[in-house]
């Protein structure tokens, strides 16, 4: 017997027919002898509808009341799935966030889970009931409804799995796993059988939108084995424990044979490049630039400070999320006197391409392979940043697909090159 | 300063524009110096949508999970009204059924309120906040969501008013008060300024669908002053304490000048008449008829046992709700051997017309006026039943409107006849 958490997204809950399919999928796991808790999202479109009501009621809505409104979406689907499971002959009951409870802080609309009480849940599951838990919601210390922010149901599922010491947390999504890169760009991209938490964090944060980033961080901290699976729920779908998806695990679970130098190639076109020209080359100049951006809560990513010009000034280039570009320019212009730059130049036609892999920790030459590969095709590198398990470059947006394809081949990731 | 409960139905909550109008109406009461709790229904149509989901998921849905699903409708509107009130500059917060809590029994989908804890509510209102409370929902002793049955928000409002010792419970509805009879039948029907709980119970249970019957019974028990008002919420609407609607009060609050012999005329076409012919005229015969109906949970209303025939048998006639007719006939046919009737005859083309008024307690002749008035126009009376404050007759359905008009005039209820 295994204890598993199964998580289904909004597409899987969109209408009673689909909820019935989910119930059938859960039933198979129960009949295989497993203890199961299911975490559900709201019906596709429902959260948008409820958020729309709140915004229409007031652009400055109270996040505490917003949480009361939007938490209703998952409440509805959890009750409906419990009904559908019972109709399929599977004992089941819903456990709302406040009933377990799932304790969170009071950062309404973006709360973080503190702890989950599982005594009642364990008793119910031991008695043979499937527990159906609405994702996305919790309870603050002063007894109010909280929600975790968009995509928060992934985090709910991982937190429930950690609390009930589940053997596995299966996340059913629109994709059937995590790939070496975006299969729409590289048809020969391979589904990964396993990926480490660290790699998944880097792949997710640079654009592989399979799981909410926070849920991966939590899984890493709590050592929860997370599996990404296709939400295709027909009777002929393979059982989840036969590994049809991608398992996200600790590095120690990946043995040397499986380990690749590079696990995947990610890209992100939602970056914008900003350059300040002729900034005085003196102590404090750089902090004068980044302080106003930090004050505006804008995340600066890649930073390059060019070699000083002869006349004691320098150019500073960095990237910010495209969505924050206008606010960034405004903040910098307001600080123009303090910073003392000549010109403020920006470019949204850039993309960040990253190669990710825990294997590079023990191998030199990853970065130089990247630069050589791109250089051969005349792709100009505008900025570089590196971490222990990632090398990223900033290039012209138009060259994104070309760069991803070249790198996918160069690191031996194409399907025909790799072991199954 | 008065403490008041304001209750708004689904039509008033159907969309943000209307919720904003409700907020404006609440704001006027707050600015007049009142402490206010608001009880809200779900958006019009929302409960039907959620009930539809449950039925689609399983015709035999678990009522505990049904309650989880349908309670979401009022949760949504309570959060939205709190946001709209804040946007109008009125401090407000929502209190869900489980947060106060509103304790109920565990008769899911038709629960009854036991008690309501009001300490937190009182503190919040004393601090100047409007409390927004979802109607229809509560919490069972084992910590699960319950709902009160359709129309239950009226009962929630009265129960909250009783618990917080409110001076008044204002129920905003699609009509602007309780009338002497249905104004669609009698254009000269008058709006009543006051009506007693007992009269309202009789008027509601025989067809004047303004308030859920249970809420009136609770108001009577708890001596809550209930006011029925139009939900028209424009700025020119009169303040609620200037009595534009109908106040439902104890008999002692209606002085002799105001008291009418008859308060109103009600009618109900949802009755069906059943006659069993040639039933043995012997002890136990009648209970043999009504036991199987009671076992099937069918309410029998008017009963007539005719004078015994010469050959020791009798005919028994009674009415049941039209919706229960098929089940009634089935139950009686199954008990045919035991009862020993010759024929089972039914007629759905009947109507019950009732005259209601506490004044008849001290006046004889009310029933005879009724019979004489109907007899003059050749309206045949098929059955009669009476209570302390009501006389009902069963007539042919086609004569309903005629009978109501004749009686309305005969008892001096027409607008031109009466004092303002």
Model description:
- The structure is a homodimer of 420-residue chains.
- With 420 residues, the first copy, chain A, is α/β, with parallel strands linked by helices.
- The first copy, chain A, folds into 2 domains: 3-251, Carbamate kinase, CATH 3.40.1160; 260-420, VC0802-like (2-Layer Sandwich), CATH 3.30.2130.10.
- Helices cover 33% and strands 24% of the residues of chain A.
- Chain A has helices spanning 16-31, 46-57, 63-70, 72-87, 119-126, 152-163, 197-205, 213-222, 285-295, 325-334, 336-339, 366-376, 400-410; strands at residues 3-8, 35-40, 92-94, 102-104, 113-116, 130-134, 137-139, 145-147, 168-173, 194-196, 226-230, 246-249, 264-268, 271-280, 303-305, 313-321, 344-347, 350-356, 383-387, 390-396.
- In chain A, the strands form 5 sheets. Chain A has an 8-stranded mixed β-sheet, with helices on both faces.
- The longest helix of chain A is centred in the first third of the chain and has 16 residues, at 16-31.
- Chain A is globular, with a radius of gyration of 24 Å.
- Chains A and B meet through helix 1, helix 2, helix 3 and helix 4 of A and helix 1, helix 2, helix 3 and helix 4 of B.
- Chains A, B: Its EC number is 2.7.2.4.
- Chains A, B: ATP binds at residues 7-10, 173-174, 179, 184, 209-210.
